[in-house]
Specification:
Strand order of the largest sheet of chain A: 2-1-3-4-5-11
Distance between the termini of chain A: 74 Å
Largest interface: A-B, 75 and 79 residues
Oligomer: homodimer
Radius of gyration of chain A: 26 Å
Order of helices and strands of chain A: HHHHEHEHEHEEHEHEHEHEEHEE
Structural class of chain A: alpha/beta
Number of strands of chain A: 12
Helix content of chain A: 40-55%
Strand content of chain A: 15-25%
Chain lengths: 348, 348
DNA sequence: AAAACCTACTTGTCCGGTTCAGGAGAATAG
DNA sequence: CTATTCTCCTGAACCGGACAAGTAGGTTTT
């Protein structure tokens, strides 16, 4: 079996008791030495530290946690159908940011990828917390009537919500001004001269999708333009279908704003198939920026936000909460529009 | 919900001792009852189970692990520069498969995303194992002179390698017949009539990239065609640059095989920019399939493998190893070519 | 009727840390 | 020269489970 496979394989790992025995001192002294606490002479401390290093000693996370410390683990559940690609272009950069902060602060990430099944997610939190596996969790993909909020609050499980703010919930959250984002997009298109703008949104069950929809409607109204929103799943095929419907209208839009980069790419493919020239005959904007938008030709105009920084912020707010510092509701910096090759004045 | 006090956050979670006290029996009896072990009457067992449910009791993972059980956590380190997008289209489906098996078998995934820094990865394994955080790890992205193999073997840390097989290493591994994959791709292109084929590979530090390179060379030689391999990073810009160089040659290739879907898309963008028609003037194949290949027009011919199944297999082999069953070296099913819109006979 | 054997428990120890309440010996104070 | 206060260290309890060993009480065997 794999354990102790190689000749030198140390099957049993060193414990503090081993160090204490070899140095003929007490476990307590070893503990103080290793934790940088007062109560041991610097000579002893050094001997302990040296030996610990020699033996390859690491504190058992279980023992530490059992003795009352935190577990040093935070949890994240990703609950979307696995075949939905949108999560990827957002999620990896987000995770990268999360991880960076966790690593800096000595924590790790427990990840769970499940299908879209709200109960399973709530259940996971309950188990993780019950089993003392995590110190807290990051909640992503805020939904309407989100059962996760009462669940984590009921459990007393520290959590930070990427979304909100929610009235009636005291959870710290990272909220985005979707109205401002919407204005940036609509302003850009209207400034170019577009008057028939379509908005292909993601599922309205997501709070931010409905906020975006409201945002574009208002931004359009303020400029005397109506923006039509159509809802679709975050998949390529769905975006394809919706785009075809839009372009089949008697008066098709001259600009389409897609909820995600993947959808925008699907839209471009439809245009390519139909010989609709971009951006001459149709302008396209993606609400999410990622490496995908610059991978195609022409590159897609997209609303950019610093996703790793967003993840890093979420992680640091959560770790602070675990440490007892509630940073409350924090506004995420407004996105900026990266104007690329898919937006231009409409054909007359 | 599950916890008794709904009004205030229940900071203290129920323990077996609580159950024992309330039922006026011993902790041991509670333990036997909860673990389905003999030694308690069914009446008592039922009372214990009921109360445990009422109290929302879960076994402390730390206490369990400390008492000798496994931790129920397996680790995965993702070590590539965070701005390399290739990881995403492979990684999320892979993780989905991993998670499914882990969930079925009651384990969780500890994830770490780090930059490409081999020492950091080895160090992470050392810590995770030292701290008893994980029962085993999945190794992805096999490299030449991979320091992780001696590291995990030296530690006695159960691991499964996605790659290999490695001579001199007893690690169970999931190996791929890259030669067969290469033949599939080259055969397809040669059958269409291509004789000038280019292969844009990823960094040769990855074992599988060099195996693929060797594979296409041999497959070409067997058919009397030379296949030229050019190495590039897995980024869009690098693929763009290499593609431009290839197309600038006096006798440019009529078909390009890209190491990844992202690179293939970048190649398509170059062609679009130059007005090179695909597939009439240039055929494109991607060695990796993902949702990206069908997101663009024309859809990209790609070598498909069931990535979730691959992840699931890796997880199950690792869990078996942790349970003491070494399944040795397992060959991954050969990929199949999904012929789509980017391959056609070359222009005469 | 005594021995043997269940069943249904209890007691106590252990895992590997943390931490509290001392205590010995040296240094400082009065 | 004792009293006090350090510094440096020890012993033991504790966290929450798992489990080995022991025990009361009843049932079966001989």
């Amino acid at each position: 079996m794999a354990k102790g496979s190689s000749s030198a394989g140390p099957v049993t790992r060193a414990t503090m008791a081993d160090i204490a025995r070899r140095l003929d001192i007490s476990k307590a002294a070893v503990s103080y030495a290793l934790n940088g606490q007062p109560g041991v002479s610097s000579a002893t401390r050094e001997k302990v530290l040296d030996l610990a290093k020699d033996l390859g000693w690491y504190a058992s996370s279980s023992a530490r946690a059992l003795a009352g410390a935190e577990t040093g683990v935070i949890g994240l559940v990703l609950a979307r159908p696995s075949d939905l690609p949108t999560i990827e272009t957002f999620f990896i950069p987000f995770l990268t940011g999360v991880e960076q902060v966790l690593t800096e602060r000595g924590s790790s990430l427990l990840l769970r990828v499940i299908g879209e099944h709200p109960e399973a997610e709530t259940k996971t939190y309950e188990r993780w917390w019950g089993e003392r596996r995590v110190d807290g969790v990051i909640l992503v993909d805020e939904r309407y009537h989100d059962m996760r909020l009462p669940a984590v609050e009921g459990l007393g499980l520290p959590a930070v919500l990427c979304g909100g703010p929610i009235k009636g919930s005291a959870l710290p959250c990272l909220w985005t001004d979707h109205g401002a984002d919407a204005r940036i997009v609509v302003d850009h298109l209207v400034a170019l001269g577009h008057t028939r703008i379509a908005h292909v949104s993601g599922p309205a069950g997501f709070v931010f999708e409905r906020a975006r929809r409201r945002g574009v409607r208002r931004a359009g109204a303020a400029l005397g333009v109506t923006v039509e929103t159509i809802e679709a799943e975050y998949t390529g095929p769905q975006a394809t279908e919706v785009t075809q419907r839009l372009l089949d209208q008697p008066e098709p839009p001259t600009a389409i704003v897609y909820a995600s980069d993947v959808m925008a790419l699907a839209g471009l493919a439809v245009a390519a198939t139909r010989g609709v020239s971009i951006p001459a005959q149709l302008s396209v904007v993606s609400w999410d920026d990622s490496y995908l938008t610059t991978l195609v030709h022409p590159a897609v105009t997209a609303l950019f936000r610093d996703t790793p920084a967003y993840g890093a912020l979420a992680a640091s707010v959560l770790l602070d909460l675990v440490d007892g510092r509630d940073r409350g509701r924090i506004q995420v910096p407004t996105s900026s529009l990266r104007v690329r090759g898919t937006t231009a004045p409409p054909a007359k």
